[in-house]
Write a structure and sequence with these properties.
With 114 residues, the protein is an all-beta fold. The chain is 0% helix and 46% strand. Strands 2, 4, 5, 6, 9, 10 and 11 form a seven-stranded mixed sheet that branches. It has a four-stranded antiparallel sheet with strand order 1-3-8-7, with no helix packed on it. A hairpin with a 4-residue loop joins β7 (68-73) and β8.
Length: 114
């Protein structure tokens, strides 16, 4: 059974950092590109970052460039999203996604507030 499980969200002050992981199971993780999406209240789900099977050529949405970093550890079947210099507008549920397997995690809530 294909499964993606995010964790590591929480409440953080503006300017703070988080690094939620997403652990994959039930498929050959190292064979697939992975991505992170987010959905804020009342808004559409949007792509945040994508990473290739071997961790090269990451790509980012303009609104996170220079602040967020996507990475992966294929030995641990895990993809990470390092989020620095967080802003209130980054508040959203963050989802892990594998397009080729049509798999989504349940998400982890990130709230940026003072």
């Amino acid at each position: 059974q294909v499964q993606l499980v995010e964790s590591g969200g929480g409440l953080v002050q503006p300017g703070g950092s988080l690094r939620p992981p997403c652990v994959a199971s039930g498929f050959s993780f190292l064979n697939y590109a992975m991505s992170w999406y987010r959905q804020a209240p009342g808004k559409e789900r949007e792509l945040v970052a994508v990473i290739s099977q071997i961790g090269t050529d990451p790509d980012y949405a303009d609104f996170v460039k220079g602040r967020f970093t996507i990475s992966r550890d294929n030995a641990k079947n895990t993809v990470y999203l390092r989020m620095n210099y967080l802003k209130p507008e980054d508040t959203a549920i963050y989802y892990c996604h594998c397009f080729a397997r049509a798999a989504w995690g349940r998400g982890t809530q990130v709230t940026v507030s003072s």
